[in-house]
Design goal:
Helices cover 79% and strands 3% of the residues. It is an all-alpha fold. It has helices spanning 3-28, 32-56, 65-87, 92-99, 102-114, 120-135, 150-176, 179-198, 201-211, 214-241, 244-250, 254-264, 279-301; strands at residues 138-141, 144-147. The chain has one domain (3-119, 148-252).
Length: 302
């Protein structure tokens, strides 16, 4: 299967995960730390399943990929930890697009340090995608326009940079081991990192209170215990099939998926998320989405 198809499948599933995460972080969990703690515990489960399946099927070839898989998991944990905190202060659609500036950092590192070569048209498509992602962070305000809050922007851009480095580490891991072998090592590293970052008495008490209720417990398991691991495995597969700079840029289509879902879930019929739907806000979001889609189509043909 072509890398761009696998990348888009991964991105669509991650978009749904983002929507559900927004609901969990903003409405079901009292703090981002308690959510991160629950997310971390699920990574241990994912790692256990992964180790069992891989050991009984394809095996752990490419031992040189293990250190890079661990680094990838550490960076993904740190990036997602930061992103989940930013998600508390910004709409899911905007937070996701700010996070999607990661391909700028990834492409620069891949070209400078990994020897990847991009054509002029590919660079133009990358710029178009990232410009669309930046535009969606603009908000109508008092008859004019303004960017999201400085606090939200800072948190989300830091998350984007860390995640871009996670892309690079994942690429290095898949160069040395199969995607199936990378995933469990990555998950165990993510789990350990998140435990170190969030395991405090207050977060643990908050998590136990949340998990005593069936609804958030099932949502967390379905989102981070089932859908997210499948999306992550698809992403690792895509990186194994194609150049990391372009795979990471295709993930910038996530705002399109998130925009559609958040718009539907913010209507009067299904007002689950409550994101603004005024004409100017939707106009900015639609414009930026068209830029992103055009850029990804250009990448597919270049």
């Amino acid at each position: 299967m072509d890398w761009i198809v696998v990348s888009l499948l991964s991105t669509a599933l991650f978009a749904l995960v983002t929507i559900l995460d927004k609901r969990l972080v903003a409405s079901e969990f009292p703090t981002a730390s308690s959510f991160n703690l629950g997310f971390g515990f699920l990574q241990f489960y994912i790692a256990a399943v992964g180790f069992t399946v891989v050991s009984q099927t394809v095996g752990f070839d490419g031992g040189a990929g293990i250190p890079w898989s661990i680094v990838s998991g550490f960076l993904w944990a740190l990036g997602l930890f930061t992103f989940f905190h930013g998600l508390r202060y910004e709409d899911a659609s905007r937070a996701t697009t700010i996070q999607m500036t990661a391909p700028v950092y990834t492409s620069a590192v891949a070209v400078v340090f990994l020897g990847e070569i991009l054509s002029l048209s590919q660079w133009l498509m990358i710029i178009l995608v990232v410009a669309g992602a930046a535009l969606i962070s603009v908000k109508p305000h008092a008859g004019g326009l303004r960017f999201a809050s400085a606090k939200a922007l800072t948190i989300l851009f830091v998350a984007a940079f860390i995640i871009s480095m996670a892309f690079i580490a994942t690429d290095q891991a898949t160069d040395r081991a199969s995607a199936w072998a990378v995933q469990p090592w990555r998950a165990i590293s993510m789990a350990t990192t998140l435990m170190v970052l969030t395991l405090r008495p207050g977060a643990w008490a908050d998590l136990k209170t949340v998990l005593a209720r069936p609804k958030p417990s099932l949502m967390l398991f379905a989102t981070e215990g089932v859908m997210a691991p499948i999306a992550a495995l698809l992403f690792i597969w895509a990186v194994a099939l194609g150049p990391v700079s372009l795979v990471s840029t295709v993930t910038s289509t996530r705002p399109l998926m998130v925009l559609i879902l958040t718009t539907v879930l913010s209507t009067k019929m299904w007002n689950v998320l409550g994101e603004p739907l005024d004409r100017q806000t939707l106009g900015l979001k639609i414009t930026s989405t068209l830029m992103i889609v055009a850029g990804v189509i250009g990448l597919g043909w270049s």
